[in-house]
Amino acid sequence: MTALLGWMFEKGSAPILEQSMNFTEARHRLILSNVANADTPHYRRLDLDKKGFNRALESAIERRREHHPGRFSMTLDLRVPTDDRGHYLPGRWLPTADHEGPLRHDNNNVSLEREMAVLAQNAGSYRRAAGLLRKQYGQIRAAIAERA
Amino acid sequence: MSESLPIQPIQPPSGSEGIGKKSASKPDGPSFGDVLKNSILEVNQLQKDADFAIEQLQTGKTEKVSEVLTAVEKADLAFRALMQIRNKLVDAYEEVNRLRV
Amino acid sequence: MLGSLEISASGLEARRLWMNTIAENIANAETTRDANGQPNPYTRREPLFSTMKVGNAVGVQVLEVQKDPSPPREVYRPGHPDAGPNGVVKLPNIRVVQEMVDMMMATRSYEANVTAMQATKEMGSAAMRILA
Lengths: 148, 101, 132
Known about the structure:
The structure holds 3 protein chains of 3 kinds. By secondary structure, chain A is mostly helical.
């Protein structure tokens, strides 16, 4: 069934929006960790490589444009594994611990103001992508229904 | 032997040469079929524009969120309007089919 | 998405413990005797935070509530029941002003974790609405 009707979900922006949501969701988790550990000695803030993601997304879109029928594929390995002592291990998108920002006396570089700003911007992206995806599916539903 | 009355063929009233011929020849303005076809093409283009706008937004190439959302809404509304036209056409077709001739 | 509520929950719990510790410090800023009534000034406590594995993510925990090793404050108060022969009392190594500042920081961190948790919930709702 999917082979027959799968094309419906391959074209258009649905796969792009889904991948964006995957990325922002993973990034959100890191921000939560940063906020939870804002007072932990020796903790350095973590984040995902947004520019890297944008580039990879662009490439995947380009690849789909070049092939007919266009298939959208993007290997998005967003697993950020942790060890038992509660440290994130380097993953595909995760740069090594973010060394920006002033270090406090406890060797921690988390700035709550910055985390709040990144949190809001990232959550906004996620909700916007979800809204757009909902609209896409709504259109497909309208086309299928006997009476729109 | 009676005289046969001259029977003249019925002539159409003068000045009516144009009536009825219009449907057989090319109309002056666009036909309903052309209008419909153009609408479909337009809806398709709006959809492509919206898809492109979303691509630009999600890859971080543009920050103009309101423009993207407007493009998406336009495409969506145009699509739904076209769906309504489709529904009405289907209704009309079914109604004509039901006429007992 | 909603599994990540646990990360913020660990952040909230750690701050709550921190705030309790500060409150105890403030309450005992003048305590010169221990539970047995012996002259033994209260020692300031502070939490030791560390990262903690929370599901597949990283949260925070209080590893230990440690005693502040700095020495008691020696204050000249000859009238005090626990004053020594030279009129000096050993008071807890607590400065209330510092504790108030710490309380403000703990509160701020607590609230930041609340905001973060709120964002998680909103994102979860947005995802659910796709099904509508």
